[in-house]
Write a structure and sequence with these properties.
- The structure is a homodimer.
- Chain A contains five helices and 13 strands.
- With about 220 residues, chain A is α+β, with helices and mostly antiparallel strands.
- The first copy, chain A, has a single domain, classed as Electron Transport, Fmn-binding Protein, Chain A (Pnp Oxidase, Chain A).
- Chain A has a seven-stranded antiparallel β-sheet with strand order 4-3-7-10-11-6-5.
- In chain A, a hairpin with a 2-residue loop joins β5 and β6.
- Chains A and B meet through β1, α2, β2, β5 and β6 of A and β1, α2, β2, β5 and β6 of B.
- β13 of chain A pairs antiparallel with β13 of chain B.
Chain lengths: ~220, ~220
């Protein structure tokens, strides 16, 4: 094993340190967050930090980088209290990555890519039409991370639109059926394939697959 | 698209709501957190909520469920201010999942599985010997999530042990070279395969692959 100490980390060029620390914590989710400004300009930005925070009530979190530079997503979601989270597939990842380019505030990433905006059922923020999982969220709270100036944004799930073929009968969504991607570090795009699904673990019992057998509910 | 509204979510049986909300936010990281009690009993627990929080300083976060039931990992990491984060591979996922079984406090999950503990260079918490990425962390802070009683634990990266073949020359770690897994929901184990790595995005430029070409640093 190669050892990289705290001192080694401090001595790495910042971009290399970012590559390393961003990749070693494991695979990340790949999502596009859609918002709209009060003036009506839509915005779309890639985030690989969306994570599950709770299911009762249904809450998702994501990490925003420090507000030292302009953050269109943050300004918009604060202004209208709503945003969408949209899964990124193998057909979308190049356009999704491109949304990280610094376009001016009056240019929508929907117009700079082939991703299409979709407004549904009166929800104020735009969904991504091509995405097989589209989630409408309401802004709930934020937690400033004092160690580095990042912000944890907490949102409540208001509406889910999902391609029906992803859903098992117990409402588990098998993401690889729609070629949803995951991310390594800042810029690596990987395509996962489901290997197994395991039953509830009990002491001194062997782990059984529940992929094709009875589901425990 | 199938629509699942907030009211539909509320009406789902809790286990099904958990399956759905846990899976729709995308692929999760797959890690084992290793700790040791002041009495010397090691503990190993699977977490799929470890995420990158910052690289300068290098910080990782993870979400702990509410402390309403006994949390050995939390008690230990508070007591000794140290813990390890260890990647889960295709060879390890059944044992890793099994660490979620409720063993009593005086039974180490290392003894209940074939996962082996490894103490290195005086670091107080145990690493998982089989893991291709092993990270020693120091407890830094915690943020109580008032919406549901969960806790965001923030740790500083003190030491990284990594199989050298994962590292590109710019310190980006290609996780699929060691068959590191990712998780869907609470119990689905997927094996990702790297498809592409993309260059820094600039307005009005096509996204180029940097997998085999020059790296931008």
């Amino acid at each position: 094993m190669k050892q990289i100490s705290k001192a080694d980390l401090e001595n790495l060029p910042s971009r290399q340190r970012a590559n390393l620390v961003n990749s070693i914590s494991g695979y990340k989710s790949a999502n596009l967050i859609g918002t709209i400004s009060p003036e009506g300009t839509t915005n779309l930005a890639i985030f690989n930090s969306v994570f599950h925070l709770g299911s009762n009530p249904p809450l998702l979190g994501f990490i925003l980088r420090p507000l030292s530079e302009e953050r269109h997503t943050y300004n918009n979601l604060k202004a209208i209290s709503s945003y969408t989270i949209n899964a990124i597939t193998q057909d979308m990842y190049r356009d999704a990555h491109h949304t990280s380019a610094k376009y001016p505030e009056n240019v929508s990433e929907f117009s700079a890519t082939s991703l299409e905006e979709s407004f549904k059922n009166g929800f104020p923020a735009p969904f991504v039409k091509q995405s097989p999982v589209q989630i409408g969220c309401r802004y709930v709270n934020e937690y400033p991370i004092v160690e580095n100036g990042c912000i944890l944004v907490v949102g409540a799930v208001e509406n889910i639109y999902v391609v029906p073929s992803l859903l098992h009968h117990d409402h588990w969504a098998q993401l690889d059926r729609a070629n949803i991607m995951s991310v390594i570090g800042l810029d690596g795009y990987a395509l996962p394939h489901l290997e197994d699904r395991l039953g509830y673990a009990r002491p001194n019992q062997t782990q059984n697959s529940i992929l094709d057998g009875p589901q425990e509910n």
